[in-house]
From TrEMBL:
Membrane-spanning intervals of the chain: 20-43, 63-82, 89-109, 115-134, 146-167, 179-199, 238-258, 270-290, 302-319, 325-349, 361-384, 390-411
Keyword Transmembrane belongs to the record: yes
InterPro entries referenced in this protein's UniProt entry, alphabetically: MFS (IPR011701), MFS_dom (IPR020846), MFS_trans_sf (IPR036259), Proton-linked_MCT (IPR050327)
MF (Gene Ontology): transmembrane transporter activity
Lineage: Bacteria, Pseudomonadati, Pseudomonadota, Alphaproteobacteria, Hyphomicrobiales
Name the UniProt record assigns to this protein: MFS transporter
Domain called Major facilitator superfamily (MFS) profile: residue spans: 20-416
Organism: Pyruvatibacter mobilis
Gene3D superfamilies: MFS general substrate transporter like domains (1.20.1250.20)
Coiled-coil regions listed in the entry: none
Pfam family, one: MFS_1
């Protein structure tokens, strides 16, 4: 017992000396794991259950697109709210209301009720997911922002790997009505305690400085957050270039993700398709973490261009891949780009425009991106039907990724220096 006491004492000292921003990152990791698992990755699971028991596929085909659009517009609302109110209370309230909405899943019997559920939850999801999460990371970190965001946003992938399969198992074994109660509980536990007990709106609210820098000398005061005003930022060439590029990049990415299982199933079988999805998810996590550390040493603009090109290459590889080795190789190549491209958007906007109006700036860019997200799966399906296969469909979205690269390449330099 006595031998362990010095070890525990050193551990306690290290924990006390850890910059509080890393606790914020840990809490955002938990909330992103929960919201992505119950929300984003769970959409197809819920729709599958509804079509098996209550509705025709044609009746509910627009629900996912409505969810993305609702979350995009909701992000604009919450982007303004988190500038005016304590962000942890906004996130906690959104998580609580989102959990309450899930209690009514078992009562949905009409198509309009299903669409209302997806719209309302889409709005509430945006209040406790990417917009507030990335805003908090940006407030707490500057020099190590890429590393911090890569760790926090890994929760997005973990949610798809852990929470969504759990949701599918609960629905399959307990039914939709009971699953609604469990999903409500998961959402509440994963968001509300983390928001209220751990999250804090900024380092200054705790008497700290960003990145854990030493305290200011006596008489010095911390200035207001640096940055470009919202009205000026959204009219800039760089904002327009990044935003339009991300419409095409996310259209290609989400279109490919939504059809990957079926593509591999057609060329091999369902077991290989399940393995390919898992390989892609694992590659996304590893790629994002490596990318976060690499960004502290590489120019962010060059890094972004490289990954947009790599995404196009991965999609082209999918279009031609035949056999297990080629399909798994394409999954790895494309997977490495998935997490990085999603992470780079808030980093680019944060570095270009600072913290002053970051929440609203990112929310508007993300709203525009949802049109690409909503269009991607439909575009792949249309080209598949027209051309008679996934070869042409994946080449089409590979071209979409190249369009994104071309647009971003002429967006101009990052405002505060292309580090």
């Amino acid at each position: 017992m006595t031998q362990t006491q010095p070890v525990l004492a050193r551990l306690a000292t290290q924990l006390r000396e850890t910059y509080y921003g890393w606790w914020v990152v840990a809490a955002i990791f938990v909330t992103m794991t929960t919201t992505s698992g119950v929300g984003f990755y769970n959409l197809s699971v819920l729709l599958g259950a509804f079509t098996e028991t209550r509705f025709d596929v044609a009746e509910v085909s627009g629900a996912t697109s409505l969810y993305f659009l609702a979350s995009g517009f909701g992000g604009m609302v919450f982007g303004r709210l988190i500038e005016r109110f304590n962000i942890r209370y906004v996130m906690a309230l959104s998580g609580l209301l989102g959990a309450l909405v899930f209690l009514f899943v078992g009562a949905i019997t009409e198509v309009w009720q299903l669409y209302l559920f997806y719209a309302v939850f889409g709005v509430l999801y945006s209040g406790c997911a990417l917009v507030p999460g990335t805003t908090l990371v940006a407030r707490w970190f500057a020099r190590r922002r890429a590393v911090a965001l890569s760790i926090a946003s890994t929760g997005l992938s973990i949610g798809g790997i852990v929470v969504s399969p759990l949701s599918a198992w609960i629905i399959q074994t307990q039914g939709l009505a009971t699953a609604g109660y469990w999903l409500a509980l998961i959402l509440f536990i994963g968001v509300v305690p983390a928001a209220l007990l751990v999250l804090r709106p900024s380092p200054q609210s705790m008497g700290l400085r960003i990145d854990g820098d030493p305290p200011l000398a006596d008489g010095e005061e911390e200035g207001p957050p640096d940055g470009v005003p919202y009205a000026e930022a959204v009219r800039s060439r760089f904002f327009i270039g990044v935003t339009v590029a991300y419409v095409f990049a996310m259209m290609a990415q989400v279109g490919a993700l939504s059809h990957q299982f079926r593509l591999v199933s057609e060329r091999e079988d369902a077991a290989m398709a399940a393995l390919a999805v898992s390989v892609l998810a694992a590659s996304s996590i590893v790629g994002r973490l490596i990318g976060g550390f690499a960004l502290s040493r590489l120019p962010i603009r060059t890094f972004t261009l490289s990954f947009m090109g790599l995404q196009a290459l991965g999609l082209a590889a999918f279009s031609q891949a035949e056999g297990p080795v080629a399909l798994l190789g394409a999954s790895v190549l494309f997977g490495i780009t998935v997490g990085n491209i999603l992470m780079l958007q808030p980093l680019l906007l944060g570095e270009a425009f600072g913290l002053r109006d970051y929440g609203r700036i990112f929310a508007l860019s993300q709203l525009c991106g949802t049109f690409g997200v909503a269009a991607g799966p439909s575009l792949v399906g249309l080209v598949y039907d027209f051309a008679g296969g996934y070869g042409a469909a994946y080449l089409a979205i590979a071209c979409g990724s190249l369009v994104a690269l071309s647009i971003f390449s002429v967006a101009g330099p990052v405002r505060h220096g292309d580090r």
